[in-house]
């Protein structure tokens, strides 16, 4: 029996497998045969499964080769350069691309529609024929309905008995009995605030009535027994041997001598208005303190601001120099014949305004409520602009824009544009414009402009940048009435024609009063049967409906609060402008002041006007569009004395 020696090499034996590629076979039990069988079995198993890629060792070995290493470096460089280019591009766009401006914060008065109320004529509540505070309170819902958020009340202080003037005040911290009392005033203020309506009072610091306690005490001051009120008014000795000649040649606005001799004090007192309205001496520190106390009293009751009346007359020449006649042919008895440099618009006014503005701000900071301060002023535009502030000191929020009152039935597109340019271009930087509809001292809007031009004019002052100041009844096109004694000479004293009762409906007395205790203090205009709130509320084509649509448009869109203002087409017939702001809707306001129709192309006249826009408002039925219509801006039709407001969505500026 042969056997293999331990450690001897295995013998190669011929293979019996017909597919064998090698002509030998391994003997059994050597281990090599078993390993081969195992490898083949593993290979067969691998062929039955999907390929799983290289192993870690193979991957590392191949990735370390120079080709793959260079390729990786190239790819990484490309990615890094791409990211760097992207960052540079983004930074450049941020720095260069026009940014959307942040909408500015605006105080309530800049968003306001101010509505001047002549209290005696607005609404009678107790039936005595005189409008009163309770009457105004009963109409707060109406004021809210038409978009009014600030009411400015005519003087409601007690006045001298039988006085024809509501500025002939005898008590600055009380309410005239015919209007109500302090409790009713506080109730009105609180109710107004509940409706979101601010309350502004008239402030008359230029003069008082003869029966005011200050004047009574002042006239009784003597050299031997002077009292604290001796310098509260402007007192001067007379001229001549008997001292009975007036101190100078000044005339009052009512064409009388501006000086009246008082036999109690044996001096002349100054009155730039009626002789029953002596001028206060605002150079007196005691007067200044008392006036501040008056402001504080009313602010403590919740008043939101003040209108300074007759502000141009607050100071006069310290040396009491004579006024000069404008020409040798001038009638020396007339106020209008003189240069009023010494009696009107004196520079001392600016310091007084700055003091009052600072005082209102100080009080407002304590109460968390900003107070409005505005004033009247006539004269040259540069002098009016000084009211905004002088020598880096704030003045009033705005002086009333009386140039609006010069527009009349002859107004055309160029004239309207000129009025707007004059005010906007003359304003100091960062100041706020205003657009005056009417006052109790000027012709009513409908009387000045006629029934036709009232529509484009209302649209103009409501949508320009600034605060519109309306007079009660403007929203229905109310006219004044003819008063026999309302002559040119006494117009300033009585102004009855523009103070007639508000026309609420076509019932007795125009709905102004039930008059259970008497008759109206003044009869309404006979047109009240057709021109009244109730009839116009039911008429979609009325001035009333236009007014409410304008206040809604102004309230709903921020472009009318703080948007830019730019002129578009301006010619003899048409005045148009654009209001827009970054991120807000843009608006084109196109107004035709002519009595014939006009078609104008606006596309390209201002860069934000698109080729097509949407009708946001029309001023009347003569415009062949309805709200929501799409209109080509290349041919916008405007009816006679009509206008249209077009809108479009904001589109970011392209680089």
UniProtKB/TrEMBL annotation:
Q: Where is the composition biased (Basic and acidic residues)?
A: 45-56
Region (Disordered) residue ranges read 1-56
Can you supply a Gene Ontology BP term from the record? carbohydrate metabolic process
Q: Which ranges carry the Glycosyl hydrolase family 13 catalytic domain?
A: 116-511
In terms of InterPro entries, this protein maps to: GH, GH13_cat_dom, Glyco_hydro_b, O16G_dom_2, SLC3A2_N
Listed A to Z, the keywords are:
Glycoprotein, Membrane, Transmembrane, Transmembrane helix
Write one Pfam family the protein is assigned to: Alpha-amylase
Signal peptide (UniProt feature, chain positions): none
- Give TM segment ranges: 71-97
**Please, which domain of life does this record's source organism belong to?**
Eukaryota
Q: Which PANTHER family match?
A: ALPHA-AMYLASE FAMILY MEMBER, NEUTRAL AND BASIC AMINO ACID TRANSPORT PROTEIN RBAT
Report the protein name in the record: Glycosyl hydrolase family 13 catalytic domain-containing protein
Traced from the root, the source organism's taxonomic lineage reads:
Eukaryota, Metazoa, Spiralia, Lophotrochozoa, Mollusca
């Amino acid at each position: 029996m042969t056997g293999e020696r331990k450690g001897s090499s295995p013998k190669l034996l011929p293979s019996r497998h017909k597919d064998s590629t090698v002509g030998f076979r391994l003997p059994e039990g050597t281990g090599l045969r078993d390993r081969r069988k195992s490898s083949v079995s593993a290979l067969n198993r691998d062929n039955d499964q999907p390929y799983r890629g290289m192993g870690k060792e193979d991957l590392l070995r191949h990735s370390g080769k120079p080709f793959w290493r260079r390729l990786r470096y190239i790819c990484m460089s490309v990615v890094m350069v791409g990211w760097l280019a992207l960052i540079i591009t983004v930074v450049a766009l941020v720095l260069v691309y026009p940014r959307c401006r942040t909408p500015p914060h605006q105080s309530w008065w800049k968003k306001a529609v101010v509505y001047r109320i002549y209290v005696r004529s607005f609404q009678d509540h107790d039936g005595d024929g005189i409008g009163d505070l309770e009457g105004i309170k009963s109409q707060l819902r109406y004021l809210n309905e038409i978009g009014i958020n600030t009411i400015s009340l005519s003087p409601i202080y007690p006045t001298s008995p039988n006085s024809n003037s509501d500025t002939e005040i005898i008590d600055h911290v009380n309410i005239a009995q015919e209007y109500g009392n302090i409790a009713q005033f506080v109730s009105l203020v609180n109710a107004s605030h509940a409706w979101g309506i601010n309350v502004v009072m008239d402030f008359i610091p230029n003069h008082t009535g003869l029966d005011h306690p200050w004047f009574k005490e002042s006239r009784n001051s003597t050299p031997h027994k002077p009292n604290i009120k001796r310098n509260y008014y402007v007192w001067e000795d007379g001229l001549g041997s008997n001292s009975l000649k007036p101190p100078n040649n000044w005339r009052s606005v009512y064409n009388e001598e501006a000086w009246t001799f008082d036999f109690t004090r044996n001096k002349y007192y100054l009155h730039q208005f009626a002789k029953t309205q002596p001028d206060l001496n605002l150079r007196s520190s005691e007067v200044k303190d008392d006036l501040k106390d008056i402001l504080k009293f009313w602010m403590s009751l919740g008043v939101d601001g003040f209108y300074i009346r007759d502000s141009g007359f607050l100071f006069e020449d310290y040396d009491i120099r004579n006024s000069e006649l404008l020409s040798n042919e001038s009638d020396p008895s007339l106020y209008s014949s003189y240069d009023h440099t010494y009696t009107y618009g004196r520079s001392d006014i600016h310091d007084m305004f700055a003091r009052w503005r600072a005082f209102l701000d100080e009080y407002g900071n304590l109460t968390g409520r900003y107070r409005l301060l505005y004033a009247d002023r006539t004269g040259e535009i540069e002098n009016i602009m000084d009211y905004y502030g002088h020598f880096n000191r704030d003045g009033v929020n705005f002086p009333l824009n009386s140039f609006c009152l010069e527009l009349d039935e002859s107004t055309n597109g160029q004239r309207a544009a000129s009025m707007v340019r004059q005010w906007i271009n003359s304003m100091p930087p960062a100041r706020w414009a205003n657009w005056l509809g009417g006052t109790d001292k000027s012709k009513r809007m409908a009387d000045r402009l006629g029934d036709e031009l009232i529509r484009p004019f209302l649209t103009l002052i409501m949508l320009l940048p600034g605060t519109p100041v309306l007079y009660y009844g403007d929203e229905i096109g109310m006219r004044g009435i003819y008063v026999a004694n309302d002559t040119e000479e006494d117009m300033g004293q009585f102004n009855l024609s523009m103070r007639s009762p508000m026309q609420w409906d076509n019932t007795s007395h125009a709905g102004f009063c039930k008059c259970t205790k008497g008759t109206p203090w003044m009869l309404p205009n006979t047109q009240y049967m057709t021109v009244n709130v109730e009839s116009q509320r039911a008429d979609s084509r009325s001035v009333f409906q236009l007014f409410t649509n304008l206040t809604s448009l102004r309230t709903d869109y921020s472009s009318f609060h703080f948007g830019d203002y730019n002129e578009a087409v301006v010619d003899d017939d048409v005045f148009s402008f654009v209001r827009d702001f970054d991120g807000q809707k843009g608006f084109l306001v196109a107004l035709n002041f002519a009595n014939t129709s006009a078609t104008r192309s606006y596309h390209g006249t201002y860069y934000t006007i698109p080729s097509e826009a949407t009708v946001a408002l029309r001023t009347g039925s003569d415009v062949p569009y309805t709200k929501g219509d799409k209109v080509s801006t290349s041919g916008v039709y405007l009816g006679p004395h009509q206008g249209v407001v077009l809108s479009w969505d904001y589109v970011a500026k392209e680089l």
